[in-house]
Amino acid sequence: MWIRMARLFQSLENVTATGNKTLALSSGLRAFERSDYVNFSRIICQEYGSTNIGEARATKWLAAIFEVHEKEIIDATLAWGDLGEGIYQFLSDGEYEDSILSLSQVLNLLDADCSSIKSDAFVLYKEALTSMSALEIKWFVRYWLNKPRSGVSTSTLKRAFAITPNVGKEAINAALKHRSVTELIGYYAAHGEEFLERLPEINWIGRFITPMLAKKYNGRNLPRDFVVDIKYDGNRYQIHNNANTTIMFNRKGKQVNDQFPDILEMFSEVNNEFIIDCEIYPIRDDGSPDDHKKMGKRVHSKDKEKAVEECPVRLVVFDIMYYNGTLLTEMSYEERLMYFDDCPDVVQRHRAEFLGNDVESSYQIAISEGFEGIMIKDLETPYESRRSAGLLKHKPPRIELDVVIMSAKYGRGKRGDVFGTYEIGAVSGAGFSSLGWVGGGLSEGDLLHLTTTLRRIVEYYDNERQTFHFLPRIVLEITADLVSYDDDGNLGLRFPRVTRIREDKFPADCNTIEDVVEMM
Fold first, then answer.
1. Does 127 score more than 70 pLDDT?
2. Among 96, 77, 70, which residue's Cα sits nearest to residue 141?
3. Which of 36, 57, 201, 385 could form a disulfide with 32 if both were Cys (CB 3.0 to 4.6 A apart)?
4. Across all residues in the chain, what is the average pLDDT?
Protein backbone atom coordinates (compact mmCIF):
# COMPACT_ATOMS: atom_id res chain seq x y z
CA MET A 1 0.00 0.00 0.00
CA TRP A 2 1.04 3.59 -0.67
CA ILE A 3 0.89 4.63 3.00
CA ARG A 4 3.49 1.97 3.83
CA MET A 5 5.80 3.29 1.13
CA ALA A 6 5.32 6.90 2.27
CA ARG A 7 6.29 5.90 5.82
CA LEU A 8 9.36 4.12 4.47
CA PHE A 9 10.46 7.24 2.57
CA GLN A 10 9.86 9.37 5.65
CA SER A 11 12.02 7.07 7.77
CA LEU A 12 14.83 7.18 5.18
CA GLU A 13 14.73 10.92 4.51
CA ASN A 14 17.37 11.86 7.07
CA VAL A 15 19.43 8.66 6.98
CA THR A 16 22.83 9.67 5.60
CA ALA A 17 24.99 6.55 5.92
CA THR A 18 24.82 4.51 2.72
CA GLY A 19 24.98 1.19 4.57
CA ASN A 20 22.14 2.11 6.94
CA LYS A 21 19.99 3.35 4.06
CA THR A 22 20.63 0.15 2.09
CA LEU A 23 19.71 -2.09 5.03
CA ALA A 24 16.56 -0.08 5.78
CA LEU A 25 15.44 -0.20 2.15
CA SER A 26 16.08 -3.94 1.98
CA SER A 27 13.99 -4.44 5.11
CA GLY A 28 11.30 -2.17 3.70
CA LEU A 29 11.10 -4.17 0.48
CA ARG A 30 10.60 -7.42 2.39
CA ALA A 31 7.68 -5.82 4.28
CA PHE A 32 5.66 -5.66 1.06
CA GLU A 33 3.83 -8.50 -0.63
CA ARG A 34 5.86 -9.87 -3.54
CA SER A 35 3.06 -8.88 -5.90
CA ASP A 36 3.97 -5.25 -5.08
CA TYR A 37 7.71 -5.60 -5.66
CA VAL A 38 7.69 -4.42 -9.28
CA ASN A 39 5.54 -1.36 -8.50
CA PHE A 40 7.80 -0.63 -5.52
CA SER A 41 10.79 -0.63 -7.88
CA ARG A 42 9.07 1.41 -10.60
CA ILE A 43 8.26 4.19 -8.14
CA ILE A 44 11.79 4.35 -6.69
CA CYS A 45 13.40 4.22 -10.15
CA GLN A 46 10.82 6.75 -11.44
CA GLU A 47 9.84 4.43 -14.27
CA TYR A 48 6.65 6.20 -15.21
CA GLY A 49 5.68 8.66 -17.91
CA SER A 50 6.09 12.42 -17.93
CA THR A 51 3.04 14.02 -16.33
CA ASN A 52 3.85 17.42 -17.90
CA ILE A 53 3.67 18.99 -14.47
CA GLY A 54 5.90 21.61 -12.91
CA GLU A 55 5.88 23.29 -9.53
CA ALA A 56 3.71 26.22 -10.59
CA ARG A 57 1.07 24.03 -12.22
CA ALA A 58 1.19 21.54 -9.34
CA THR A 59 0.57 24.40 -6.92
CA LYS A 60 -2.53 25.42 -8.90
CA TRP A 61 -3.80 21.85 -8.87
CA LEU A 62 -3.25 21.45 -5.13
CA ALA A 63 -4.95 24.77 -4.39
CA ALA A 64 -7.96 23.70 -6.48
CA ILE A 65 -8.05 20.20 -4.95
CA PHE A 66 -7.98 21.42 -1.34
CA GLU A 67 -9.95 24.62 -2.07
CA VAL A 68 -7.39 27.06 -0.68
CA HIS A 69 -5.56 30.09 -2.09
CA GLU A 70 -2.44 29.42 -4.11
CA LYS A 71 -0.53 31.96 -2.04
CA GLU A 72 -1.01 29.85 1.08
CA ILE A 73 0.68 26.90 -0.60
CA ILE A 74 3.39 29.11 -2.11
CA ASP A 75 4.15 30.60 1.32
CA ALA A 76 4.37 27.11 2.85
CA THR A 77 6.68 26.01 0.04
CA LEU A 78 8.98 28.98 0.60
CA ALA A 79 8.99 28.37 4.34
CA TRP A 80 9.81 24.66 4.11
CA GLY A 81 12.00 24.55 1.01
CA ASP A 82 9.97 22.40 -1.39
CA LEU A 83 6.36 21.87 -2.41
CA GLY A 84 6.13 18.35 -0.97
CA GLU A 85 7.23 19.40 2.51
CA GLY A 86 5.26 22.64 2.25
CA ILE A 87 1.94 20.92 1.50
CA TYR A 88 2.67 18.35 4.22
CA GLN A 89 3.14 21.07 6.83
CA PHE A 90 0.18 23.04 5.49
CA LEU A 91 -2.16 20.05 5.76
CA SER A 92 -0.72 18.42 8.89
CA ASP A 93 -3.20 20.15 11.23
CA GLY A 94 -6.16 18.78 9.30
CA GLU A 95 -7.92 15.48 9.81
CA TYR A 96 -6.63 13.31 7.01
CA GLU A 97 -6.76 9.56 7.40
CA ASP A 98 -4.40 7.09 5.77
CA SER A 99 -5.57 5.99 2.35
CA ILE A 100 -6.05 2.47 1.05
CA LEU A 101 -4.45 3.32 -2.30
CA SER A 102 -2.30 0.59 -3.81
CA LEU A 103 1.07 1.19 -5.43
CA SER A 104 -0.53 0.30 -8.76
CA GLN A 105 -3.11 3.07 -8.34
CA VAL A 106 -0.37 5.57 -7.49
CA LEU A 107 1.58 4.58 -10.60
CA ASN A 108 -1.53 5.09 -12.73
CA LEU A 109 -1.72 8.64 -11.38
CA LEU A 110 1.98 9.23 -12.06
CA ASP A 111 1.46 8.04 -15.64
CA ALA A 112 -1.42 10.48 -16.26
CA ASP A 113 -1.09 13.58 -18.46
CA CYS A 114 -1.51 16.63 -16.20
CA SER A 115 -1.14 19.31 -18.85
CA SER A 116 -4.66 20.67 -18.26
CA ILE A 117 -6.59 21.27 -15.04
CA LYS A 118 -9.77 20.69 -17.06
CA SER A 119 -8.75 17.14 -17.94
CA ASP A 120 -10.03 13.84 -16.59
CA ALA A 121 -6.67 13.51 -14.82
CA PHE A 122 -7.59 16.35 -12.46
CA VAL A 123 -10.75 14.53 -11.39
CA LEU A 124 -8.72 11.39 -10.65
CA TYR A 125 -6.09 13.39 -8.75
CA LYS A 126 -8.69 15.16 -6.64
CA GLU A 127 -10.34 11.89 -5.68
CA ALA A 128 -6.99 10.27 -4.83
CA LEU A 129 -5.31 13.14 -2.97
CA THR A 130 -8.32 13.93 -0.82
CA SER A 131 -8.24 10.30 0.33
CA MET A 132 -4.56 10.50 1.38
CA SER A 133 -2.98 11.51 4.66
CA ALA A 134 -0.68 14.55 4.71
CA LEU A 135 2.35 12.25 4.77
CA GLU A 136 1.16 10.36 1.70
CA ILE A 137 0.52 13.65 -0.12
CA LYS A 138 4.02 14.88 0.69
CA TRP A 139 5.70 11.91 -0.95
CA PHE A 140 3.24 11.71 -3.80
CA VAL A 141 3.90 15.36 -4.70
CA ARG A 142 7.66 14.82 -4.62
CA TYR A 143 7.49 11.88 -7.00
CA TRP A 144 4.87 13.69 -9.10
CA LEU A 145 7.43 16.47 -9.68
CA ASN A 146 10.28 13.96 -10.21
CA LYS A 147 12.07 15.54 -7.25
CA PRO A 148 11.75 12.83 -4.57
CA ARG A 149 14.48 14.12 -2.22
CA SER A 150 14.25 10.83 -0.37
CA GLY A 151 17.92 9.95 -0.77
CA VAL A 152 16.79 6.71 -2.40
CA SER A 153 17.86 6.14 -6.00
CA THR A 154 18.11 3.29 -8.48
CA SER A 155 21.63 2.52 -7.27
CA THR A 156 20.37 2.40 -3.65
CA LEU A 157 17.67 -0.06 -4.67
CA LYS A 158 20.22 -2.20 -6.51
CA ARG A 159 22.35 -2.44 -3.37
CA ALA A 160 19.30 -3.18 -1.24
CA PHE A 161 17.99 -5.87 -3.57
CA ALA A 162 21.41 -7.52 -3.78
CA ILE A 163 21.16 -8.38 -0.08
CA THR A 164 17.39 -9.05 0.07
CA PRO A 165 17.04 -12.59 -1.35
CA ASN A 166 19.10 -15.31 0.28
CA VAL A 167 20.89 -16.23 -2.96
CA GLY A 168 24.19 -14.39 -2.84
CA LYS A 169 25.10 -10.76 -3.46
CA GLU A 170 27.66 -11.55 -6.17
CA ALA A 171 25.19 -13.61 -8.19
CA ILE A 172 22.59 -10.83 -8.12
CA ASN A 173 25.12 -8.15 -9.02
CA ALA A 174 26.23 -10.28 -11.98
CA ALA A 175 22.61 -10.54 -13.16
CA LEU A 176 22.15 -6.78 -12.73
CA LYS A 177 24.86 -6.14 -15.30
CA HIS A 178 22.47 -6.92 -18.13
CA ARG A 179 19.04 -6.50 -16.58
CA SER A 180 17.34 -3.58 -14.89
CA VAL A 181 16.66 -3.88 -11.18
CA THR A 182 12.91 -3.69 -11.87
CA GLU A 183 13.13 -6.59 -14.32
CA LEU A 184 15.12 -8.70 -11.88
CA ILE A 185 12.79 -7.87 -8.99
CA GLY A 186 9.92 -9.03 -11.19
CA TYR A 187 11.52 -12.46 -11.58
CA TYR A 188 12.15 -12.62 -7.83
CA ALA A 189 8.53 -11.75 -7.13
CA ALA A 190 7.41 -14.55 -9.46
CA HIS A 191 9.85 -17.31 -8.47
CA GLY A 192 11.23 -16.52 -5.02
CA GLU A 193 14.81 -17.37 -4.08
CA GLU A 194 15.15 -19.68 -7.08
CA PHE A 195 14.62 -16.78 -9.49
CA LEU A 196 18.23 -16.69 -10.79
CA GLU A 197 17.88 -20.28 -11.95
CA ARG A 198 14.61 -19.38 -13.70
CA LEU A 199 15.94 -16.37 -15.62
CA PRO A 200 15.26 -16.80 -19.34
CA GLU A 201 18.10 -16.42 -21.78
CA ILE A 202 18.42 -12.84 -22.94
CA ASN A 203 17.42 -12.13 -26.51
CA TRP A 204 19.89 -9.37 -27.24
CA ILE A 205 18.34 -8.28 -30.52
CA GLY A 206 15.91 -5.57 -29.47
CA ARG A 207 17.40 -5.07 -25.99
CA PHE A 208 19.06 -1.65 -25.99
CA ILE A 209 22.58 -1.57 -24.53
CA THR A 210 23.44 1.64 -22.66
CA PRO A 211 26.19 3.25 -24.78
CA MET A 212 29.81 3.77 -23.82
CA LEU A 213 30.52 7.50 -23.53
CA ALA A 214 33.74 9.39 -24.11
CA LYS A 215 35.77 11.58 -21.79
CA LYS A 216 37.62 14.65 -22.98
CA TYR A 217 41.28 14.20 -23.94
CA ASN A 218 43.42 16.38 -21.67
CA GLY A 219 46.64 16.27 -23.72
CA ARG A 220 48.22 13.61 -21.53
CA ASN A 221 47.51 10.21 -19.95
CA LEU A 222 47.13 8.33 -23.21
CA PRO A 223 46.25 4.62 -23.02
CA ARG A 224 49.15 2.18 -23.31
CA ASP A 225 47.82 0.67 -26.55
CA PHE A 226 45.32 2.59 -28.64
CA VAL A 227 44.01 3.47 -32.08
CA VAL A 228 42.69 6.77 -33.40
CA ASP A 229 39.72 7.26 -35.68
CA ILE A 230 37.75 10.24 -36.94
CA LYS A 231 35.15 11.95 -34.75
CA TYR A 232 32.12 12.27 -36.99
CA ASP A 233 29.80 15.22 -36.35
CA GLY A 234 26.52 13.33 -36.42
CA ASN A 235 24.07 11.49 -34.16
CA ARG A 236 24.82 8.29 -32.28
CA TYR A 237 22.74 5.21 -33.09
CA GLN A 238 22.65 1.54 -32.18
CA ILE A 239 21.55 -0.93 -34.87
CA HIS A 240 20.18 -4.40 -34.04
CA ASN A 241 19.84 -6.87 -36.89
CA ASN A 242 18.78 -10.46 -37.50
CA ALA A 243 17.13 -12.36 -40.37
CA ASN A 244 13.70 -10.98 -39.51
CA THR A 245 14.19 -7.40 -38.41
CA THR A 246 16.43 -4.36 -38.19
CA ILE A 247 15.94 -1.94 -35.29
CA MET A 248 17.58 1.46 -34.89
CA PHE A 249 17.82 3.10 -31.46
CA ASN A 250 18.99 6.63 -30.72
CA ARG A 251 21.30 7.33 -27.79
CA LYS A 252 18.38 7.47 -25.38
CA GLY A 253 17.19 4.01 -26.41
CA LYS A 254 14.19 5.25 -28.43
CA GLN A 255 13.42 3.34 -31.63
CA VAL A 256 13.83 5.63 -34.69
CA ASN A 257 13.33 3.34 -37.70
CA ASP A 258 11.03 5.83 -39.42
CA GLN A 259 13.80 8.47 -39.64
CA PHE A 260 16.23 6.40 -41.71
CA PRO A 261 14.52 4.24 -44.36
CA ASP A 262 17.64 4.50 -46.54
CA ILE A 263 19.85 3.12 -43.77
CA LEU A 264 17.40 0.30 -43.02
CA GLU A 265 17.44 -0.66 -46.70
CA MET A 266 21.17 -1.42 -46.40
CA PHE A 267 20.37 -4.24 -43.98
CA SER A 268 17.21 -5.59 -45.66
CA GLU A 269 18.86 -8.79 -46.93
CA VAL A 270 21.44 -9.28 -44.15
CA ASN A 271 20.70 -12.36 -42.03
CA ASN A 272 23.53 -12.18 -39.48
CA GLU A 273 22.67 -11.30 -35.89
CA PHE A 274 24.59 -8.32 -34.58
CA ILE A 275 24.40 -5.14 -32.54
CA ILE A 276 26.62 -2.32 -33.79
CA ASP A 277 27.44 1.14 -32.46
CA CYS A 278 27.25 3.81 -35.17
CA GLU A 279 27.29 7.45 -36.09
CA ILE A 280 25.12 8.91 -38.85
CA TYR A 281 26.16 12.31 -40.19
CA PRO A 282 24.93 14.58 -43.02
CA ILE A 283 26.99 14.81 -46.22
CA ARG A 284 27.25 17.15 -49.20
CA ASP A 285 26.97 16.05 -52.83
CA ASP A 286 30.71 15.34 -52.92
CA GLY A 287 30.51 13.11 -49.83
CA SER A 288 32.21 15.57 -47.47
CA PRO A 289 30.61 16.20 -44.04
CA ASP A 290 27.85 18.81 -44.02
CA ASP A 291 26.61 21.05 -41.19
CA HIS A 292 25.20 18.93 -38.38
CA LYS A 293 22.07 21.11 -38.21
CA LYS A 294 20.80 19.37 -41.32
CA MET A 295 20.22 16.26 -39.21
CA GLY A 296 17.22 18.10 -37.82
CA LYS A 297 15.40 17.41 -41.10
CA ARG A 298 15.78 13.68 -40.51
CA VAL A 299 14.79 13.81 -36.87
CA HIS A 300 11.87 16.25 -37.02
CA SER A 301 10.44 16.19 -40.56
CA LYS A 302 7.03 14.56 -41.01
CA ASP A 303 7.71 14.03 -44.73
CA LYS A 304 10.32 11.27 -44.46
CA GLU A 305 10.83 10.87 -48.21
CA LYS A 306 11.55 14.58 -48.57
CA ALA A 307 13.89 14.46 -45.56
CA VAL A 308 15.91 11.65 -47.17
CA GLU A 309 16.21 13.71 -50.34
CA GLU A 310 17.13 16.97 -48.62
CA CYS A 311 19.52 15.48 -46.10
CA PRO A 312 21.67 12.66 -47.49
CA VAL A 313 23.60 10.90 -44.74
CA ARG A 314 26.44 8.48 -44.25
CA LEU A 315 26.62 5.61 -41.77
CA VAL A 316 29.84 4.89 -39.88
CA VAL A 317 30.20 1.78 -37.70
CA PHE A 318 32.81 2.00 -34.93
CA ASP A 319 32.03 -0.75 -32.44
CA ILE A 320 30.25 -4.09 -32.17
CA MET A 321 28.67 -5.46 -28.99
CA TYR A 322 27.02 -8.69 -30.12
CA TYR A 323 27.53 -11.09 -33.01
CA ASN A 324 25.73 -14.34 -33.91
CA GLY A 325 24.92 -15.47 -30.40
CA THR A 326 28.01 -14.06 -28.65
CA LEU A 327 27.90 -11.04 -26.36
CA LEU A 328 31.13 -9.09 -26.86
CA THR A 329 30.88 -6.35 -24.23
CA GLU A 330 33.29 -8.04 -21.79
CA MET A 331 35.94 -8.41 -24.49
CA SER A 332 38.62 -5.80 -25.14
CA TYR A 333 38.16 -3.38 -28.04
CA GLU A 334 40.95 -5.17 -29.89
CA GLU A 335 39.04 -8.46 -29.59
CA ARG A 336 35.76 -6.83 -30.64
CA LEU A 337 37.42 -5.48 -33.75
CA MET A 338 38.27 -9.03 -34.83
CA TYR A 339 34.55 -9.81 -35.05
CA PHE A 340 34.19 -7.17 -37.72
CA ASP A 341 36.19 -9.45 -40.03
CA ASP A 342 33.25 -11.90 -40.06
CA CYS A 343 30.59 -9.21 -40.45
CA PRO A 344 28.66 -8.89 -43.72
CA ASP A 345 29.90 -6.50 -46.41
CA VAL A 346 27.36 -3.83 -45.51
CA VAL A 347 29.04 -3.44 -42.10
CA GLN A 348 32.57 -3.67 -43.46
CA ARG A 349 31.90 -0.96 -46.06
CA HIS A 350 30.84 1.49 -43.38
CA ARG A 351 33.49 0.93 -40.74
CA ALA A 352 35.19 3.93 -39.16
CA GLU A 353 38.49 5.01 -40.69
CA PHE A 354 41.51 4.50 -38.44
CA LEU A 355 44.21 7.16 -38.67
CA GLY A 356 46.96 5.34 -36.77
CA ASN A 357 48.17 6.21 -33.27
CA ASP A 358 49.80 9.62 -33.78
CA VAL A 359 47.31 11.82 -31.95
CA GLU A 360 48.33 15.28 -33.19
CA SER A 361 48.83 14.26 -36.83
CA SER A 362 45.52 12.41 -36.83
CA TYR A 363 43.81 15.41 -35.29
CA GLN A 364 45.08 17.77 -38.00
CA ILE A 365 44.08 15.34 -40.77
CA ALA A 366 40.55 14.99 -39.40
CA ILE A 367 40.06 18.76 -39.02
CA SER A 368 41.45 19.49 -42.50
CA GLU A 369 38.93 17.06 -44.03
CA GLY A 370 36.02 18.84 -42.36
CA PHE A 371 35.42 16.45 -39.47
CA GLU A 372 34.86 17.35 -35.83
CA GLY A 373 38.06 15.91 -34.40
CA ILE A 374 39.31 12.45 -33.38
CA MET A 375 38.50 9.60 -31.01
CA ILE A 376 41.27 7.86 -29.06
CA LYS A 377 40.30 4.26 -28.24
CA ASP A 378 42.01 2.04 -25.70
CA LEU A 379 42.46 -1.38 -27.29
CA GLU A 380 42.41 -3.09 -23.87
CA THR A 381 39.08 -1.67 -22.63
CA PRO A 382 35.80 -3.66 -22.63
CA TYR A 383 32.55 -2.02 -23.73
CA GLU A 384 31.63 -0.02 -20.61
CA SER A 385 28.07 1.34 -20.48
CA ARG A 386 29.17 4.59 -18.85
CA ARG A 387 31.59 7.47 -19.42
CA SER A 388 34.95 5.77 -19.78
CA ALA A 389 38.61 6.74 -19.92
CA GLY A 390 38.92 3.98 -22.52
CA LEU A 391 37.25 6.32 -25.01
CA LEU A 392 38.64 9.84 -25.39
CA LYS A 393 37.50 12.65 -27.68
CA HIS A 394 39.81 15.36 -28.98
CA LYS A 395 38.12 18.40 -30.53
CA PRO A 396 39.13 22.04 -31.19
CA PRO A 397 39.84 23.87 -27.93
CA ARG A 398 36.73 26.10 -27.92
CA ILE A 399 34.52 25.62 -24.85
CA GLU A 400 31.66 23.18 -25.43
CA LEU A 401 28.84 22.52 -22.98
CA ASP A 402 25.59 20.60 -22.77
CA VAL A 403 23.04 22.86 -21.09
CA VAL A 404 19.30 22.89 -20.41
CA ILE A 405 16.82 25.55 -21.53
CA MET A 406 15.44 27.30 -18.45
CA SER A 407 13.42 30.14 -20.00
CA ALA A 408 12.92 32.01 -23.26
CA LYS A 409 11.63 35.22 -24.80
CA TYR A 410 9.92 35.83 -28.11
CA GLY A 411 12.14 37.32 -30.79
CA ARG A 412 11.74 40.48 -32.82
CA GLY A 413 11.06 41.08 -36.49
CA LYS A 414 11.18 37.77 -38.37
CA ARG A 415 11.49 35.96 -35.03
CA GLY A 416 8.42 37.64 -33.56
CA ASP A 417 6.31 34.47 -33.62
CA VAL A 418 8.94 32.12 -32.15
CA PHE A 419 11.15 32.07 -29.08
CA GLY A 420 14.29 33.90 -30.22
CA THR A 421 16.55 33.90 -27.16
CA TYR A 422 16.99 31.22 -24.52
CA GLU A 423 18.26 31.27 -20.95
CA ILE A 424 20.51 28.26 -20.45
CA GLY A 425 21.66 26.52 -17.29
CA ALA A 426 24.08 23.93 -15.93
CA VAL A 427 23.35 21.29 -13.30
CA SER A 428 23.65 22.70 -9.79
CA GLY A 429 22.71 20.46 -6.88
CA ALA A 430 19.17 19.23 -7.44
CA GLY A 431 18.41 21.97 -9.99
CA PHE A 432 20.02 24.20 -12.62
CA SER A 433 21.90 27.51 -12.42
CA SER A 434 21.80 30.10 -15.17
CA LEU A 435 24.73 30.72 -17.51
CA GLY A 436 23.04 33.58 -19.34
CA TRP A 437 21.29 33.73 -22.70
CA VAL A 438 21.91 32.40 -26.20
CA GLY A 439 20.18 32.95 -29.53
CA GLY A 440 22.74 32.40 -32.26
CA GLY A 441 23.33 29.22 -34.23
CA LEU A 442 19.71 28.16 -34.62
CA SER A 443 18.01 27.87 -38.01
CA GLU A 444 14.39 28.90 -38.63
CA GLY A 445 13.44 25.23 -38.47
CA ASP A 446 15.24 24.84 -35.12
CA LEU A 447 13.47 27.89 -33.69
CA LEU A 448 10.06 26.64 -34.80
CA HIS A 449 10.74 23.15 -33.40
CA LEU A 450 11.94 24.52 -30.05
CA THR A 451 9.00 26.91 -29.77
CA THR A 452 6.46 24.16 -30.48
CA THR A 453 8.11 21.82 -27.97
CA LEU A 454 8.63 24.40 -25.23
CA ARG A 455 5.05 25.66 -25.36
CA ARG A 456 3.97 22.24 -24.08
CA ILE A 457 6.16 22.46 -20.98
CA VAL A 458 5.66 26.05 -19.77
CA GLU A 459 5.95 26.17 -15.99
CA TYR A 460 5.00 29.83 -15.54
CA TYR A 461 5.12 33.24 -17.24
CA ASP A 462 6.96 36.23 -15.79
CA ASN A 463 4.83 39.14 -16.98
CA GLU A 464 7.25 41.81 -15.76
CA ARG A 465 10.16 40.41 -17.78
CA GLN A 466 7.93 38.93 -20.51
CA THR A 467 9.73 35.64 -20.06
CA PHE A 468 8.41 32.09 -20.26
CA HIS A 469 9.92 29.61 -17.79
CA PHE A 470 9.94 25.91 -18.63
CA LEU A 471 10.31 22.50 -17.07
CA PRO A 472 13.97 21.46 -17.56
CA ARG A 473 13.53 19.06 -20.46
CA ILE A 474 15.33 20.41 -23.58
CA VAL A 475 19.11 20.06 -23.88
CA LEU A 476 21.29 22.19 -26.15
CA GLU A 477 24.93 21.78 -27.07
CA ILE A 478 26.55 25.20 -27.09
CA THR A 479 30.00 26.56 -27.76
CA ALA A 480 31.62 29.73 -26.38
CA ASP A 481 34.93 31.58 -26.34
CA LEU A 482 35.37 31.54 -22.57
CA VAL A 483 33.72 31.47 -19.15
CA SER A 484 33.78 34.59 -16.99
CA TYR A 485 32.08 36.35 -14.09
CA ASP A 486 30.03 39.51 -14.62
CA ASP A 487 30.11 42.57 -12.31
CA ASP A 488 27.57 40.92 -10.02
CA GLY A 489 29.62 37.75 -9.66
CA ASN A 490 27.38 35.62 -11.93
CA LEU A 491 28.89 33.03 -14.23
CA GLY A 492 28.50 33.77 -17.92
CA LEU A 493 29.72 32.75 -21.38
CA ARG A 494 31.40 34.94 -23.97
CA PHE A 495 29.89 34.68 -27.47
CA PRO A 496 27.78 31.56 -26.83
CA ARG A 497 26.32 29.85 -29.88
CA VAL A 498 24.08 26.79 -30.22
CA THR A 499 25.68 23.97 -32.19
CA ARG A 500 22.82 21.48 -31.93
CA ILE A 501 19.66 20.45 -30.14
CA ARG A 502 20.60 17.33 -28.14
CA GLU A 503 17.43 15.24 -28.26
CA ASP A 504 19.62 12.22 -27.53
CA LYS A 505 20.52 13.54 -24.07
CA PHE A 506 18.65 13.89 -20.79
CA PRO A 507 18.88 17.06 -18.63
CA ALA A 508 20.79 14.99 -16.05
CA ASP A 509 23.52 14.51 -18.71
CA CYS A 510 24.22 18.26 -18.84
CA ASN A 511 27.47 19.76 -17.59
CA THR A 512 27.59 20.84 -13.96
CA ILE A 513 28.45 24.26 -12.59
CA GLU A 514 31.70 22.69 -11.34
CA ASP A 515 32.52 21.67 -14.94
CA VAL A 516 31.96 25.25 -16.07
CA VAL A 517 34.16 26.74 -13.34
CA GLU A 518 36.99 24.35 -14.27
CA MET A 519 36.91 25.76 -17.83
CA MET A 520 37.80 29.26 -16.67
1. yes
2. 77
3. 36
4. 90
